[in-house]
Amino acid sequence: MTDLFSLKDKTAIVTGASGLLGKAHCEALAAAGANVVLADIRPVSFEMAGNHLRVILDVSDEGSVQQAKERILNRFGSIDILVNNAAINDMFESPALAGKQSMFENYPLQLWDNAWKVNVTGVFLCSQVFGAVMAEQCSGSIINIASTYGMVGPDQNIYKSPSGEQVFFKSPAYPVTKSAVIGFTKFLAAYWGHKNVRVNTLSPGGVENKQDDFFIKNYTAKTLLGRMASPADYQGALVFLASDASAYMTGANLVVDGGWTAI
Predict the structure, then answer these.
(1) What is the pTM of this model?
(2) Rounded Cα gap, residues 71 and 76, in angstroms
(3) Which residue numbers are catalytic?
(4) Closest by alpha carbon to 172, among 150, 205, 202?
(5) Among residues 158, 187, 197, 242, which is most buried (max CB within 10 A)?
């Protein structure tokens, strides 16, 4: 059983490695024995154990992705696992104006376009460039990180303060692009199945990360396990999808959300 989950001698790329979940993904893959590529548009500064490579990567730029591929192959000789984790989740500069700016009626087209460029086109480009290496070697696992909001519409009530003020609206770009990621997973699984390249989605729920107390309370009330996630809650699922433990699994969406979407 231990061998099934081993990633020894495998090369795993994590995009968006500097993020909260990106770091946890990198640590999990390294602990399972993989050579880990920490890829991000900005330098990745956290300490890492094991054999790893830090790469500056703009997932929305084909030239950047191609350059990263050459560096990775020169260093490790293969690409076996791709975690498409890089994504934009809207942040508004002024908390006082966020409620108005995040309304669908006011939502800027530029934010929509930026999110699509990273969250969908970035997944497409990285899968195309890195996945082609997997297809050529007839083995590999691509894991697309989506979200519960890729499956269900946002409950805007959880963004209301105790006074009833709508502090923030979950804006449209993130849910819609994450839904597209789930659809892309199915396309790619069907396209590369005969090449033994498995493509699955991991859909996490919300991670507690110093949000307002009222939001944590509201979110927690909707989960069956009665809490938000920690980054470590997704590490087991990620290693499962990356390893031979899920060898007969492709085109699937593994939901790890504390029961958020169960009711």
Answers:
(1) 0.96
(2) 9
(3) 174
(4) 150
(5) 242
Bridge pairing between strands 35-40 and 140-145: unpaired
> Count of alpha carbons within 13 Å of 263, Cβ hemisphere only?
8
φ, ψ dihedrals at 37, nearest 5°: -100, 115
Q: What is the CA radius of gyration of the chain?
A: 18
CA distance linking residue 243 with residue 122, whole number of Å:
23
pLDDT in tens for each of the 263 residues of the chain? 889 999 999 999 999 999 999 999 999 999 999 999 999 999 999 999 999 999 999 999 999 999 999 999 999 999 999 999 999 988 765 666 688 889 999 999 999 999 999 999 999 999 999 999 999 999 999 999 999 999 999 999 999 999 999 998 999 999 999 999 999 999 999 999 999 999 999 999 999 999 999 999 999 999 999 999 999 999 999 999 999 999 999 999 999 999 999 99
Q: Cα separation of 41 and 251, whole Å?
A: 28
The structure tokens listed for 239 are 């290693």
- Locate 123 and state its tokens: 């997944």
Neighbours of 27 (CB within 10 A): 19
| Domains of the chain listed by start with CATH number | 3-262 (3.40.50.720)
Helix (H, G, I), strand (E, B) or coil at 37: strand
Angle at 202 between CA 1 and CA 261, to 5 degrees: 115
What is the C-alpha to C-alpha distance for residues 30 and 46, in angstroms, rounded to an integer? 14
